[in-house]
Write a structure and sequence with these properties.
Residues 6-41 form the EF-hand domain. It comes from Megalops atlanticus (Tarpon). By secondary structure, the protein is of the alpha+beta class. It has 14 helices and 13 strands. 67% of the residues lie in helices and 10% in strands. α6 packs parallel to α10 and α12 (314-407) crosses α13.
Length: 588
């Protein structure tokens, strides 16, 4: 937003405040006072005669806003320089309009806080008149204010408010915004001082371009002593004051694209040091902690980068991006609406074409029905005529028979009868020929009817094809949806089958494990029984010898053949007998 647009917004508030009866016009005497105050605040030489000369043809009656704008542009805005205090300019316009529009009842904020909100409104409002602020900018301001107060942003609360706002309107005026903030709708739980401090912080950032502020220690250039100062960071300078009330300014650190900021190691008992190097001088500064040091370094480096690329302050750039995004969305919405209108028009044209085609089909069907009626009527007439001819021929034949009976003898009657029969035969052949011709005419009429029916069927097929094309577009989406649903059901079925097979295999494995344990128990039991049985046999070995597989050692040969014991077994039995004998001797 340029300087001229920024000044015009505040002047518009002042002009509308002077319009007491809301007629869109202000008296010339009031415009003289307004012009004089504007020139005084913006340090422009005031020419009181210029206003009279500009409106000399309209001495009677007040002046409208459009009538005042040429004078304002020519004699004030074209001469303005950026060498005046914008806060004083805004306060002068605020004084004129607040007296009429500000309702101080039920407000939790001071007039100074209301003035700051008014300035923020002028910065965030749309560049069209009457001035309003849209919901996106309201949300941006409320987020900034909540962050400055140290609170947490509640998205649901703002969404509810936005729904209420959209039901009546989609934007707010400056005084409605002041009432929204001043009544504490979005600052419940916060005291007035916290709300005022939050408004001041947002005002300093958006209006005064203060990107960062706070106390830090600065090293002097002459006495080299460290003194605590209140620092204010703007896009093109760092100002430092004695205290945060900004009453006594000690100096400025002018920034440009050639400046740099660097971190320094701790020295001289000072920690968290960094240095700002400018073309003619360097400044050593000590922050309170490492976090503040890093924040200041990043903020100063951001300002230097913006100066190098000749870009505005971050909040100006973000406001421009939000505005461009809104314009882009609005253009896309308009294109979408235009496209919808075109589609609707095309659909209406298509419906009219279908209606015209339907009417043509109805007319063709009516014509075919009329043609069929005419054919049936012609056929009925031909049949009546043929019947009448037959009756007339019958009457003639009877008359001739009567005459022959009266005038001829039996032979003559017979010959006459033969001739009449021959004559009747020829007439029957003619009648058959007439009937064959009638059938050929009927076949021609039937072919004509068939051709008309085929044309009707072709036209009906075209209509059905158009209908099927419309249905195909609808059913294609349903088919894709059904196909995805079938795939999902098939996968679920396969997964359930796999799970059931896994459970069956688990049951079979458990059964096999139980059978294996049962067999092991039986085998262990059988082993124990065999071992106990062997022990019993060993004690009575003199009476019964357990038949076991023979030893693999050499077998002893006696006089009676192969012995029952091997030499090894015989030696072992002899040793056992000797041991038993020695034990019995010792026992005696």
């Amino acid at each position: 937003m340029g300087l001229r647009d920024e000044l015009l917004k505040a002047i518009w508030h002042a002009f509308t405040a002077l319009d007491v009866d809301k007629s869109g016009k202000v008296s010339k005497s009031q415009l003289k006072v307004l012009s004089h105050n504007l020139c005084t605040v913006m340090k422009i030489p005031h020419d009181p005669v210029a206003l009279e000369e500009h409106f000399k043809d309209d001495d009677e009656g007040p002046v409208s806003n459009h009538g005042y704008m040429p004078y304002l542009n020519t004699f004030i805005l074209d001469k303005v320089q950026d060498n005046f205090d914008r806060v004083d300019f805004n306060k002068m316009c605020w004084t004129l309009c607040a007296r009429k529009n500000l309702n101080r009842n039920h407000l939790l904020i001071t007039d100074d806080d209301a003035f700051k909100i008014w300035c923020i409104f002028n910065f965030l409002s749309e560049d069209k008149y009457p001035l309003v602020i849209v919901t996106e900018e309201i949300e941006y301001f409320l987020r900034k204010l909540t962050e400055a107060m140290g609170g947490s942003w509640v998205e649901e609360k703002f969404e509810d408010y936005k729904l209420q706002l959209n039901s009546s309107q989609q934007c707010l005026s400056a005084w409605e915004l002041i009432e929204l903030i001043g009544t504490g709708h979005f600052s419940k739980g916060m005291d007035r001082q916290t709300l005022s401090m939050g408004i001041s912080e947002v005002f300093q950032e958006l209006i005064l371009d203060v990107l960062k502020q706070g106390y830090m220690m600065k090293k002097g250039h002459k006495r080299k002593n460290w003194t605590e100062r209140w620092f204010l960071l703007r896009p093109n300078a760092i100002s430092y004051y004695v205290s945060e009330d900004l009453t006594e300014k000690k100096g400025d650190i002018m920034l440009d694209g050639n400046c740099c900021v660097e971190s320094l190691p701790d020295k001289e008992g000072k920690k968290c040091l960094f240095i700002v190097k400018c073309a003619d001088k360097s400044f050593e500064i000590s922050a309170s902690d490492k976090k503040k040091k890093q924040e200041w370094i990043q903020a100063i480096q951001t300002c230097i980068n913006l100066l190098k690329r000749d870009l505005p302050a971050p909040h100006h750039e973000s406001r421009q991006k939000r505005k461009e995004l809104r314009q882009k969305l609005q253009a896309e919405q308009e294109q979408l609406e235009q496209r919808m209108k075109e589609l609707q028009t095309a659909n209406e044209n298509k419906q009219r074409e279908l209606e015209a085609m339907r009417k043509k089909l109805e007319e063709a069907a009516a014509n075919a029905a009329e043609e069929e009626r005419r054919r049936l009527q012609t056929q009925s007439e031909l049949q009546d005529r043929y019947r009448m001819d037959l009756e007339r021929e019958k009457m003639v034949r009877q008359q001739m028979e009567e005459q022959v009976a009266q005038k001829s003898s039996e032979l003559e009657q017979y010959l006459q009868r033969v001739r009449e029969l021959e004559d009747m035969y020829h007439r029957l052949e003619e009648a058959l020929e007439d009937e064959r011709q009638a059938r050929q005419d009927e076949e021609a009429v039937r072919k004509l009817q068939a051709r008309l029916l085929e044309e009707e069927a072709a036209k009906r097929a075209e209509l059905e094809q158009l209908h099927l094309q419309q249905q195909k577009a609808i059913s294609q989406t349903e088919a894709e949806k059904q196909e995805l649903e079938n795939e999902r059901l098939a996968k679920e079925t396969a997964l359930q089958a796999a799970m059931s097979q896994l459970e069956q295999l688990e049951c079979e494995r458990q059964g096999a494990l139980e059978q294996y344990e049962e067999v092991m128990k039986k085998l262990e039991h059988a082993t124990n029984k065999t071992r106990s049985w062997k022990d019993k046999v060993a004690h009575h070995e003199g009476l019964i010898r357990l038949i076991q597989p023979g030893s693999k050692g050499p077998q002893r040969i006696t006089n009676w053949g192969p012995a029952a014991f091997t030499d090894t077994e015989l030696d072992r039995r002899e040793q056992d007998w000797q041991e038993k004998k020695s034990r019995s001797a010792q026992a005696q």
